[in-house]
Design goal:
Length: 547
């Protein structure tokens, strides 16, 4: 029979409050660090043991309960926000937060994260109540609570990041990266410029190629890579770790440093995206290329449509224009088109461009491996069986297989005879079911080139996605001064990259201090004022923004 005194103690609020705080502490520790998930339980047990030993939550007779509200409630709420972001994305990037607020977050497909946000908010209520009870009951906590509030504020990574960006405004050298920026200029062109097909694979990093950790999930891409040039060691710098940032880094040779305080109406949507620099589309359009962007998600999300129409692309297509053309109008996920549908439209677009004549460039962005679990296509479910809605490796194999199928279909129709195919991840993945295995060692992005004139080989270079722009241009036969464009260096040349010269962490430290490159990216941007309600909004799929 259970001990009556134990049952009596369990009914008291003290242990429920301490257990709530212990679980919150353990969950924060495993979410904000690289501790394994099972560490939650010993951390919680350690907290409870310490609480028992120190008699926390036991009221003393000479100190009546205080009715005041703790100063630490706001810092605890800020920590709750940080833990939610860390649990959702793995690494919290303040640049991504600012950019999406400014570029537009409407028509996103992250409905499950909104549900998670509601659940996190509800979970914070008992945590705040438990801490308030502890401070009001235990005079020792009440006396030290203001100091704790200061420590919680100082230690919050969100506020630390804001402080670092603020310090950049008064840094001694805020132009270190800008001095190393080389405006992209094509000096010479090949006699017969090749077409270009860029296939961005959402979050499908090269780390998945490790068979010991991830089995055969990457196998279709590994098989495809035997026919091309594979680059190993393409790392991720800060401000390049989300989709728009990854595409801008690889097409413009620069990290996406959000407009931030340069924007006088902080959260008015940006009318143009990085208008101060020339990118891949600008360079190819000037060479007579006809350019298309295709994506399964909305072009209005995160400014994708404005980026591409503002940088040389005459066809920009996303969910808005592609979904109505589906044979099955209900075959959509929360973000947009499944990858098998997207690749059907990609094949169709390349046929159209071939018929029009002249060199063409097509960029397609998948979403099949979008965190947290991916959106595997119907074609994969017929091949691989049902998806459990959790295992990201299922979606990785699906996406890799669909890409291989697309390349083989294009080759069978003779559409890649004079075409450079670039297969690349847009960035490293955020938190997924395989997260602990992914962060167990060094990580790298996928980057491979396929072309008849390129001898298959593997090149081990310490690089970043900013090096993709000059690498692609030189693989197409264009000549660049010193093999450089933007902050990137061609990985087909012997010139050292910034990562090889300075290292990843020192470059990230410089990014936190940089202001001159940020101003270069957004130079000439005329930030809009609110328009009258009767004004007609711009359509991202039409029009060419002035440069």
């Amino acid at each position: 029979m259970p001990d009556a005194s134990l049952l009596s103690r369990l009914k008291r609020p003290r242990w429920w409050a301490l257990l709530t705080l212990g679980l919150a502490l353990g969950f924060t520790a495993v979410t904000a660090t690289r501790l394994p998930g099972l560490a939650l339980w010993p951390i919680t047990a350690g907290w409870l043991w310490l609480a028992h030993a120190r008699r926390w939550g036991v009221a003393s007779g000479d100190s009546p309960p205080s009715p005041r509200w703790p100063w630490s409630l706001l810092p605890l709420i800020l920590w709750g926000i940080y833990v939610y972001l860390a649990d959702s994305f793995g690494n919290v990037d303040l640049g991504a937060v600012f950019f999406h607020l400014q570029a537009g977050i409407g028509e996103h497909g992250g409905g499950e994260r909104l549900i998670a946000a509601v659940l996190y908010t509800l979970a914070m209520l008992p945590i705040l109540a438990a801490f308030t009870w502890l401070v009001r009951t235990d005079a020792r906590w009440a006396r030290r609570e203001r100091l704790l509030a200061v420590l919680l504020l100082i230690g919050n990574p969100l506020l630390l990041g804001l402080g670092q960006r603020g310090a950049a405004l008064v840094t001694e050298d805020g132009a270190w990266l800008d001095r190393r920026y080389v405006p992209p200029v094509i000096r010479d062109t090949p006699a017969k410029p090749p077409n270009l097909l860029v296939l961005y694979l959402e979050s499908l990093e090269r780390t998945y190629a490790d068979r010991e950790r991830f089995g055969d999930a990457y196998a279709p891409l590994a098989e495809l890579s035997q026919r091309g040039v594979v680059f190993e060691g393409v790392r991720q710098l800060d401000n390049t770790g989300w989709t728009m940032a990854g595409m801008i880094a690889s097409q413009c040779g620069a990290p996406l440093m959000p407009a931030g305080l340069l924007h006088d109406s902080q959260f008015e949507p940006l009318e143009r995206v990085v208008p101060g620099v020339n990118c891949l589309g600008d360079l190819l359009a000037a060479q007579g290329y006809h350019l298309t962007y295709l994506g399964g998600a909305s072009t209005r999300f995160a400014g994708k449509g404005r980026f591409y129409t503002g940088h040389g692309f005459d066809r920009v297509r996303g969910r808005e224009t592609l979904a109505p053309r589906l044979e099955d109008p209900d075959y959509l996920n929360s973000w947009g088109l499944y990858d098998d549908s997207l690749y059907d439209f990609t094949l169709e677009e390349i046929r159209r461009r071939e018929a029009e004549g002249g060199p063409w460039g097509v960029i397609a962005l998948s979403l099949g491996t979008h965190p947290p679990a991916g959106y595997p296509a119907r074609a994969c479910r017929r091949r691989q069986g049902e998806h459990d809605g959790v295992d990201i490796l299922y979606s990785v194999e699906c996406s890799a297989w669909l890409v291989k199928q697309l390349v083989e279909r294009l080759e069978a129709e003779g559409l890649l005879a004079n075409t450079l195919v670039v297969i690349a991840s847009d960035h490293l993945t955020m938190r997924v079911s395989a997260w602990e295995d992914l962060i167990a060692g060094p990580r790298a992005n996928t980057l491979m080139l396929l072309h008849n004139d390129l001898a298959p080989r593997r090149l081990r270079r310490e690089a970043s996605t900013m090096d993709v722009l000059p690498t692609v241009l030189e693989a197409m036969g264009f000549r660049l001064d010193h093999h450089r464009a933007g902050l990137g260096v061609s990985l087909l040349a012997d010139e050292p990259t910034l990562v090889e010269r300075y290292g990843l962490e020192p470059l990230n430290a410089r990014l936190k201090e940089e202001t001159a490159l940020q101003r270069r990216l957004w130079e000439g941007l005329d930030f809009p004022r609110p328009e009258p309600a009767s004004a007609t909004p711009d359509q991202p799929d039409s029009g060419q923004a002035s440069r």
